Amino acid sequence: MSLLRLLRRATSAATPRLAALYPAASVRTFAFSSAEEAAAERRRRKRRLRIEPPLHALRRDPSNRPPPPPPGAPRLPESTSSLVGPRLSLHNRVQSLLRSGDLDSASAVARSAVTSRVRPTVFTCNAVVASFYRHKRYDDAVSLFNFFFNQSNVIPNVVSYNFLIVTYCDSGRVDSALDVYRHILDNAPFSPSHVTYRHLTKGLVEADRITEAVDLMREMLSRGHGADSLVYNNLIKGYIDLDNYERAYELFDELKERCLVYDGVVNATFMESYFAKGRTRRRWTRLKPLMKDIGCYNNIIGKLVEHGRVEDAVGIFDSMSGKSVYSDLKTYGYLVDGYFNEGRVDDVIKVVEDLTAEPPEPPEKNDILGFYSRANEKPKPDVGFYNKVLDGLVKAGRLEAAEGVWAKMVEKGMKPNAGTIEVLVRGVCEKGWLDRARDFLLEMAKNGVVTGAEFQQFVLEEFEKEGRGHEAKELFACS
Predict the structure, then answer these.
(1) Do 30 and 8 form a contact (C-beta atoms < 8 A)?
(2) Distances (CA, A) of 185 to 21, 178, 253
(3) φ and ψ at 50, to 5 degrees?
(4) Distance separating alpha carbons of residues 269 and 260, to the nearest angstrom
(5) What is the pLDDT of residues 79-102, one digit of tens each?
(6) Residues 329-353: tens digit of each pLDDT
(7) Of 42, 68, 153, 309, whose CA is between 20 and 30 Å from 96?
(8) What are the CA-CA distances from residue 163 to residues 91, 168, 198 (Å)?
(9) What is the pTM of this model?
(10) pLDDT for the residue 29
(11) Rounded distance, CA 449 to CA 419, Å?
């Protein structure tokens, strides 16, 4: 007989006598028939504890609550998590009015919401102020800032202050912008951003206060901000306008030492000045060493194309592959613009063929990684790129070439948009090719493309000249 059974019998026999002698005592007996059963129960309890936390963990301990903010502490602006539910619906409604150009209605909706149950978020208020600024209604933008953030107790964030600062700078009130900057330093629970310093340095330079702009840039660096290429560019441009190239180059060299990410904007500024003042090409070797990424190259190529230096732009484009810098659609877009400006339509077609060519077969040997690296060098054209090419080809009178590009677009599975259809249909209608225009309109209906009323009126008039107005009406009815 096992030891476990002997113990169980002894306990069972002793239990009545113990209960009689000690009625108040509780005698514990073995609850499991085997050690395996006990171990299984222990495992079950552990699993339950892992799934269900103990009750004391569910009770909130008042001592663990964060202390209340001290009296007079600045309140923090809202986060994006507040932009939900009815407040998000209000934001979308205001944005819709702003996009339609009805700024006054958008302002009225946001202002009335301040005293309602669904108050606007700081993001809604910023959108309204920004729209009035972009439409150069500076006084209204300042008034709205004061209404939302000073009178209505909406807490501004750094974006709110930046819009107020740029509004003051663009309206010639730089001292007021500097007062806002000092207010941020003294009262806001956050620091100024790089955008703050960009607006202020630009405003000071334009107000012929470049020394103060340099001091502000130094203050930016002393406060722990990294070197910002746009802030430096504002100062460099100011010294170039003063014909002080020596000081401009000093700041440029300082930027090269400090800046971790550079987008080529200063190169473009120097080049702009060279073209404007007829400087020699010798100065342009000086700018090349800082050209490192695609953003920098795009800035340079764009400026060269803008000033009619297409061959120089192509030369820089050709040098990119040797420096492991891969071009993007923006790069090719600049080349296309340059070729069209010089009437080099065949070169545009070559660019399109180069971008849409089928990739070669992968090698059988050990160059697989190199092959795929080279295959990914070229970007895939999007609808916007195709529309740029089609528009240029139609304006150049090369409709056959435009139809070839259209065929490549369809072959690649790219769906047209309203701009694609309008460019092509206008081109073939002006040639009197109404049957081809009808084909494009059928493609429009097939893809559910919706065009504007002005374009539809143009097509109807062209078709009615040939007594085929009913065809155009049917096609537009199907779209």
Answers:
(1) yes
(2) 82, 11, 30
(3) -70, -35
(4) 19
(5) 888 999 999 999 999 999 999 899
(6) 999 999 999 999 999 999 999 999 9
(7) 153
(8) 18, 9, 12
(9) 0.64
(10) 47
(11) 10
